[in-house]
From TrEMBL:
Keyword entries, A-Z: Dioxygenase, Oxidoreductase
SUPFAM superfamilies: NTF2-like
Gene3D superfamilies named among the record's database cross-references: 3.10.450.50
Name of the protein in question: 3-phenylpropionate dioxygenase
Name of a matching Pfam family: Ring_hydroxyl_B
One GO molecular-function entry: dioxygenase activity
Length: 174
């Protein structure tokens, strides 16, 4: 997460970035993965490093080179397409999802066509009638790229707030 000065909340770029995240959360909750994939750039990098608990001053809190997932558009599209098959047992019955996105801060990118967006997310996931619901809390750092008149997600780094995930699987998108 950055220590640069964020854009003001009334800056049109911040409002557009915030709208992008709200609309994305809706698509993920509705499990409209085809529409969600259309909001991603073709060269997207979508990564969730493995968090570790270390001593104060150790200088790191993720394992270098290790990630729960490190994906591109092709792998994300294959994962989404799998939900529509009989082989997606991790999502049969489908999860009930609610993505809560908050604490949105927007920063200028390396040029006018890019924005860096920090946000906090809480995912509520319920599946079936027997399993307990799960919560995942995380921080996200996104890079949005202006493609024509539309912002698209070019990069996402998800930092979960716990080092041991208590969710049964990571079949859903954060």
């Amino acid at each position: 997460m950055t220590s640069r000065k964020p854009l003001p909340f009334n800056d049109v770029r911040h409002l557009q970035a915030h709208q992008f995240l709200v609309d994305e959360a809706y698509l993920l909750d509705a499990q409209d993965y085809d529409a969600w994939l259309d909001t991603l750039t073709d060269d997207i990098r979508y990564v969730m490093p493995v968090r570790v608990t270390t001593a104060l001053g150790a200088g790191f809190d993720t394992l270098p080179g290790m990630a729960h997932f490190d994906e591109n558009k092709y792998s994300l599209s294959r994962r989404a397409a799998r939900f529509a098959t009989e082989h997606a047992w991790t999502e049969d019955p489908p999860s009930r999802l609610r993505h809560f996105v908050t604490n949105v801060r927007t920063f200028t990118g390396h040029d006018d066509a890019h924005l860096v967006v920090e946000s906090a997310e809480l995912l509520f996931r319920s599946r079936g009638d027997v399993n307990e619901a799960a919560l995942v809390s995380c921080g996200r750092e996104d890079v949005l790229r202006l493609c024509g008149a539309q912002w698209k997600l070019a990069q996402r780094t998800v930092l979960v707030d716990e080092s041991v995930l208590r969710m049964q699987n990571l079949a859903v998108f954060l």
